[in-house]
Design a protein that fits this description.
single chain, 88 residues, mainly alpha, 2 helices
Length: 88
């Protein structure tokens, strides 16, 4: 019997968590690069994508670096898009 839990579809839950972590890591790198190059539009779009991946991770209990588990802090986020509700 596998030590990894399996979801209803039979896919390993670890694959999902690993995919989310990978997308968060790559999203942070891309956001940092856009910010450093002065690409405000790109940074805004990437920040929204990263925010969505972090929300998905939180909803599914996937720990990612920067969410209190000893990883690096989150990069500054762009302001919320018009029409999106921002809780703060």
């Amino acid at each position: 019997m596998s030590s990894l839990r399996q979801g209803r579809s039979g896919a390993d839950v670890g694959d999902f968590a690993g995919g989310v972590r990978s997308r968060v890591r790559h999203g942070r790198e891309a956001l940092r690069a856009a910010q450093e190059s002065g690409d405000q539009h790109g940074a805004h779009v990437l920040a929204a994508d990263l925010e969505e991946m972090l929300r998905l991770a939180a909803e599914h209990g996937v720990a990612v670096d920067g969410d209190g588990d000893g990883g690096e802090p989150l990069p500054p986020s762009a302001p919320p898009s018009p029409g999106r509700r921002h809780e703060g």
